[in-house]
Amino acid sequence: MQADVTTLDAKKAGTVELSDHVFGLEPRADLLHRMVRYQLAKRRGGTVSVKGRAEVNLTGHKAYKQKGTGQARHGSRRANLFRGGGRSFGPKPRSHAIDLPKKVRALALKHALSAKAKSETLVVIDKCELKEAKTKELKSRFAKLGFGSVLIIDGAAVQEGFARAARNLPGVDVLPVAGINVYDILRHEKLVLTKAALEALEARFK
Hey, is 105 helix, strand or coil? Predict the structure, then answer.
């Protein structure tokens, strides 16, 4: 599979061969769903917490005598029946992460890349570099290329000036190739890969 290579100035810069075993798969919605669910569950904080009856700051003195009042027997105002008492079976800090095999995660990434290639929303550019870190300049270049909601994946590191210029643009995310993930790929309309990112991805999935 071949793809055109363009520059940030919207000029053609040749073509590149895309590996069929990475970009030519038939996308499977079930794999993509499992991976997105895995990512979103893993990033949940899980820090919610409430106090039980052993933690609330109330007296442990017996509220009233055991017999003769006509009321239920209670030994403490910390019980969950009383206002200010501890909560029964309340949430405690925990991890929401779920397990997903490493091979399934790798396959889901291939299917996400293939989905972008199949829908013709995958763009290959030669490099992501700017002489000056100017958001206005980058915005005009993106307008020529037709970029709105876009995820840009560079090589091992992103040029600092380019990252600074892009971070003020709404709907634009820039990541090094090590940070590529299924959720970010799917939530953006277009995926932009540099030639360095392509080489790193194909080497990763060899």
Answer: helix
Helical spans, DSSP H, in 43-134: 102-118
Report the CATH fold assignment for 2-40+99-204.
Ribosomal Protein L4; Chain: A; (3.40.1370)
pLDDT of residue 60: 82
Cα dist from 129 to 16, 171, 182, 194, whole Å: 19, 19, 25, 10
Q: What are the structural domain ranges in the chain? A: 2-40+99-204, 50-90
**Checking phi first, is residue 84 left (phi over 0); if not, alpha (psi -120 to 50) or beta?**
left
* Cα distances (angstroms) measured from residue 170 to each of 19, 115, 136, 175, 185: 31, 23, 13, 15, 16
Q: In angstroms, what CA-CA distances link 144 with 101, 137, 148, 180?
A: 41, 11, 11, 25
- 135-154 pLDDT, tens per residue? 998 999 999 888 989 999 99
Count of C-beta atoms within a 10 Å radius of residue 50: 13
* Measured distance CA(198)–CA(157) in Å, rounded: 14
Buried b (16+ CB within 10 A) or exposed e, 126-143: bebebeebeeeebeeebe
**Phi and psi dihedrals of 165, rounded to 5?**
-70, -35
Integer Rg of the chain from CA:
27
Q: Residue 136 corresponds to which tokens in the numbers above?
A: 């206005």
pTM of structure: 0.83
